[in-house]
Every structure is written in C-alpha cells, then in structure tokens.
Design a protein that fits this description.
- This protein has about 180 residues and is of the alpha+beta class.
- Helices cover about 40% and strands about 25% of the residues.
- The protein contains six helices and seven strands; from the N terminus they run βαααβββαβαββα.
- It has helices spanning about 10-30, 35-45, 45-50, 110-125, 140-145, 170-180; strands spanning about 5, 55-60, 65-75, 90-100, 130-135, 150-155, 160-165.
Length: about 180
C-alpha cells in the first residue's frame, strides 16, 4: 500500500482539501458540522498550524493524491481549569485532528504521523505533548496508549493524555558528560 506523508504548507488547493477532509471526518465520527468554539483551528489552518514556527500540520496522501490521514501539532492553547498551571504554550505541544481513513487503518500511517509530530516537538523544544480523545472512541485510547501516552484525567466523555519527551539540550548533555568524568 503506497502513501506519502506531507507537511502542509502554503498551498491553497491542498489547504482547502484538508479543511474539507477534516469536516467530513468530524461529521462521520461525531455527527457534527461546524461549531466555532471547537473547529476554529480548521477554518484557520494557516494561522493555527502553517504560519507559526512552532506549529505544524501533516497529511497522508494515497497514490491518487487523496488525503487519507491528518495530524496537527501546536503549542498548548487550551484553558482547561483542571490543567491550570500544568501545561504551557512554551513547553507543551498538543496534538489535534488525528484522523485516518478506515480502509487505511492498521498500516502504521497514524504511528508515522505521530512519530513525525513528536520529532517536530523535540526539535522545537517542547518538553511534553498533550492530547485528548473521546471515551467512545475506544480504538483511539488504545492507539495512544500503544505509543506510550498516559492517561492523566478522565472526565465526562473525554480522556486527557500526555507524553513526556526525552529532550536532550546542550546543558543536560554537558551535565551528563561532567558526571561521567568525575
């Protein structure tokens, strides 16, 4: 099965196709149409994911150049009261809009998208990644758990998860080298 993973950049045709794909997936998965407080990032893909240097958006394309999967990463920008003071936009990345077409699941596309996003987060000095999934998406919870994301809080219909990143910066490396020499 052929597919390619692409960083979404300033390409209006691909951006518009991605927006359509995302809204189709939201309707398919949740039976929802556009809700401004939940879907502002989709309407503003460029401002949310493409323009900011510490944010990014990735898509998976099949051999016909049709979108078959997506994943967005951005600095944590939610104001969940339960996480007040725990996460920050400076040190916490958050994953959004992770969708894979049903016929392409179990081909490691999602895993590869997450791997690219985690590498992006490390390269942009994030210390952890936050995400949330819905309780009724059992498959989603097991997917994230298989990638070492840990449940932090479960509330109502949402499971909040995180993963600490192993980010070695220069200071940490120097301390480790100094400790070895002593």
């Amino acid at each position: 099965m052929y597919y390619s993973l692409v960083k979404l950049e300033d390409n209006s045709h691909l951006i518009n196709n991605t927006k359509k794909y995302l809204f189709d997936k939201i309707n398919e998965e949740f039976g929802l149409s556009y809700i401004p407080e939940y879907h502002y990032d989709i309407v503003n893909l460029e401002k949310t994911y493409i323009i900011p240097k510490r944010n990014s958006f990735y898509i998976a394309l099949n051999s016909d150049n049709e979108i078959i999967g997506t994943l967005g990463i951005r600095g944590y920008d939610k104001n969940f009261e339960i996480f007040k003071g725990k996460y920050s936009q400076d040190r916490t990345a958050s994953l959004w809009r992770t969708y894979i077409d049903k016929e392409y699941k179990r081909h490691k596309i999602g895993t590869k998208l997450v791997s690219i996003a985690e590498e992006f987060a490390k390269n942009h000095n994030y210390k952890e990644i936050y995400l949330h999934t819905q309780k009724d998406l059992i498959e989603g919870y097991y997917f994230w758990s298989s990638l070492n994301y840990k449940k932090t809080i479960e509330e109502y219909d949402t499971i909040h998860m995180e993963k600490k990143l192993n980010v070695l910066n220069i200071e940490t490396l120097k301390r480790k080298q100094l400790a070895k020499s002593i």
